[in-house]
Amino acid sequence: MKVALEVTLEVALEVALEVGSYRHDLGPSIHRTESSWVHGCGPNANPEPPEIMPPNVSALQVRGLTKRFDRPAVDALDLTVWSGEFYALLGPNGAGKTTTLRMVAGLLRPDAGTVSILGIDALADPVAAKQIMAWVSDEPMIYDKLTPLEYLEFVAGLWGIDAKIAESSAQDLLVSLGLEPHLHERCEGFSKGMRQKVALAGALVHDPRLIILDEPLTGLDALSARHVKGLLQARVQAGCTVIMTTHILEVAERMADRIGVIAKGRLVAEGTLTELRLQNGRNDTSLEDMFIALVDTEAAAA
Amino acid sequence: MSSATAITWFARHEIRLAWREWLAMMTGARKKRTRAVIGLLLLAAILHLPAYAVIGRFADLQAPLDKSALIVVTATIFLAWALMLSQAIESVTRVFYARADLDLIMSSPVRLNNIFSVRIAAIALSVTAMALLLSSPFVDVLMIAGGIRWLSAFGVVIAIGLSAAAVAIAITVLLFRLIGPSRTRLAAQIIAAIIGAGFVIALQVAAILSYGTLSRFAVLTSDAAAAYAPDFDSPLWWPARAAIGDGEMLSLLLAGSLVLLGGVMAIFSPKFAGTVVSASATATTTRRGSRTTSFRRGSRQSALRWKELLLLRRDPWLVSQSLMQLLYLVPPALMLWRSFSDSSAATVLITPVIVMAAGQLAGGLAWLTISGEDAADLVATAPMPPGSVIRAKVEVVMIAITAIFAPLIAALAIASPIQAMVTAIFVIIATVSAAAIQLWFRVQAKRSQFRRRQTSSRIATFAEAFCSIGWAATAILAVTIPIAAVISGAMTALMLAATWKISPQRE
Questions:
Q1: pLDDT digits (tens, 9 = 90+) for B169-211
Q2: 3-class DSSP assignment, residue B305
Q3: Fewest 10 Å CB contacts: which of A104, B169, B313, B380?
């Protein structure tokens, strides 16, 4: 009886792992385990029984999102990112990517539209939405006079993370990003890449369920970029959702489950790489060619 | 490009940069510059009134001056020189550490000696231009009331401006040689602050110790000062004699300052390049923070407070700025100490000085905590209501002010408990007012832009200054004439309300 139970469990585990590895092909309908409120995805996740997310749960749902400056920056945008997905948002300079993400992160008030983060209305209850979200901008915003460890201590304090868990998580994160020799050095002498890594560690230390990154790989050397990509992929594997803007199309091509292309504040194409290729009518087209074609078409239409 | 062409080209470039920087500083980088310029002209016109009140009585001074008059005029000129020197040291430090521009210059195929000679001259010119601008209401008043001979005072301003720039460059380069580039930045800023305030404070200290008064003039016009002063033909009096219209003295002064500046350019231009390289190199050196043993437990607000206090403590620039404020507390502290042995009525003057210093210091601290947020996105995306963030930041200002002023007020309580209580109340009011003004006019900026905080909103700057003065006046009146304090307090509160009414954050 005991042996039979063990075999059954093993088979069930195998099946679960197998399904997980094919997730990319199956799209958003199959989702990874999501767990606790705050410490659900990281290396220090709470030892609570895993909670299976129902299919088609959106991590981010944006409807009719609009923002005007001198001209419309984001124009009635509809966007859905599924839970546990790695979503890359592409677009030319000034397309509205950063404005969109800043509105989602609560840094900018939209003129119209709704933003829902894992079912929380981010405009009505921004504090609850921010609790499960992290934002990393292209310009690392850290404090020159703090050490990386102090910076992470501050971030953990802001998110109300238990000090013991946060400390261990901070150490792990900084070590995994190659910052171990600099744990107690003030950030003022750091290169841009090192600063970006500190900012990224800050975003991850509170184990967010939705991570929004605006050009996170800017200024990183190849090794650092690999570290960061590895870390983000591990988070996605653990059930977090990552939304990232990038101009490095190879990164989007290799890492993203789905890709959205935005131009003039509107989503002009969206799907997996295969779906985008099908939309474009050629199976062998690179993402770069597709991107340029889409952006050119939009420019011509305007 | 020939050497001469390179120098002229670079001089033009420097003048253009200086002009734009000056314009941005004066107009607060506003798009509607015409309005800003008109406002500034109006302000300059209004400034003639206080200038008349301060200096109008000296307009009739005629040569030969008696010794007391010579001492007062010379001391005034020396004070102006000290302030210019302070300003010039800051300018030179900024040039050394402004890397973006220097990387380009130093990688260009131009002789660095020439380039740095031009840059030294540009520093001298900008310091002198600023001095001319600030002194013009005073000199105008003297010319209107005392005749055209006072025009030579502008010549004196130019001479002391050039010499202050020359001395500033020499001091800063020597500091580099003596204590190294990493410490020079802080040391230069502290020296600038001490020089700027030191002379006035030294006079006050002397006045308190000798005459038991805060008046600087008590020392300058005393018989003792006249007895120790050198003879009439001493070079010490040249600036005073030049200011009242002695053309020969003015020519000598101008020639002397030009020779001094030329000498500094010749001696220090070759060293400038090396100094700049050292300064650039220090930007990449590492400084170790405290070895955190374990993360602190506490609320989100306490995390914010801890961060703010740590950053304030580690900000050397703020240390120098704070030092300037705290230096002004030396005379009242000294007076307090004297009052324990001598029940002088002048002790009452301590209250407004403390209240004003608290208001000014709180303004600076509030800017740093509220507007000067280096990781604004991080704090804005934290799961905290904006109100809690602001409250935590204002609490930091209150904590810092309490830590600085509580010992002084406690000492005052021993001498006069009522006065100490009034002082404490008005320190709180002045601090809250300054923080409120910073809150209403907050513009997100980097902490390193602290120096420019006063240019982002002229209204906020003036409101902050006038409120500090208003609360200081109300505090002294509360101790001496309570009925008048009610009127003064109401006027200051009205000013604060008017500031709120026109503030952008109200919208």
A1: 888 888 877 877 667 777 777 777 777 777 667 766 666 666 6
A2: helix
A3: B313
A230 HSE (CA, 13 A, CB side): 11
Q: Which two tokens stand for residue B58?
A: 């000296």
Chain A hits for B449, Cβ within 8 Å: none
Which one of A107, A131, A185 has the shortest CB-CB distance to B380? A107
| Helix, strand, or coil (residue B109) | coil
Q: Is B462 strand, coil or helix?
A: helix
CA angle, B366 as apex, A147 and B462 as ends, to 5°? Answer: 140
Does residue B249 have a pLDDT over 90? no
- Are residues B194 and B329 in contact, defined by beta-carbon separation less than 8 angstroms? no
Position B422 scores a pLDDT of 94
CA nearest to B297 within chain A: A163
C-alpha A5: how far from chain center = 38
Determine if the pTM surpasses 0.80.
no
Q: Tell me which residue range forms the domain holding A189.
A: 31-301
> Kind and range of the H or E element at A67?
strand A58-68
Q: Which residues contact A32 (CB under 8 A, 6 or more apart)?
A: A20, A23, A53, A84, A236, A237, A238, A239
Of B386, B480, B402, B485, the residue nearest B442 (C-alpha): B386
Task: Identify from A103, A141, A159, A171 which residue to disrupt to test chain B contact, counting B C-beta atoms within 10 A and taking the largest count.
Answer: A141
Q: Note whether B306 contacts A131, CB cutoff 8 Å.
A: no
Closest CB to B377: pick one of A141, A167, A188: A141
The residue type found at B95 is V
For residue A4, the model assigns a pLDDT of 47
Q: Residue A238: which CATH number?
A: 3.40.50.300
Instruction: Point out which residues pair with A185 in neighbouring strands.
Output: B288
- Locate tokens 């399904």: which residue? A19
Q: Which residue of B has its CA nearest to A211?
A: B381
Structural domain count, chain A = 1
Residue with tokens 């008696």: B66
In DSSP notation, A9-53 reads HHHHHHHHHHHHHTHHHHGGGS---B--SSSSSSTT---PPPBPP
Q: Which of A227, A213, A58, A204 is nearest to A135 (CA)?
A: A213
pLDDT of B141 above 80? yes
